[in-house]
Amino acid sequence: MIEFRSVTKQFPDGTVAVDDFSLIIPSHKTTVLVGSSGSGKTTILRMINRMIDPTHGSILIDDRDVAGLNPVALRRSIGYVMQNSGLLPHRTVAQNIATVPRLRGVRRASARSQALELMQTVGLDAELADRYPSQLSGGQQQRVGVARGLAVDPNILLMDEPFGAVDPLVRAELQHELLRLQGELGKTVVFVTHDVDEALLLGDQIVIFRRGGVVAQKGTPAEILASPADEFVASFVGADRGKRALHVEHTRGGDIVVDSDGNAAGVLADENAAS
Question: How many domains in the chain?
Answer without folding.
Answer: 2
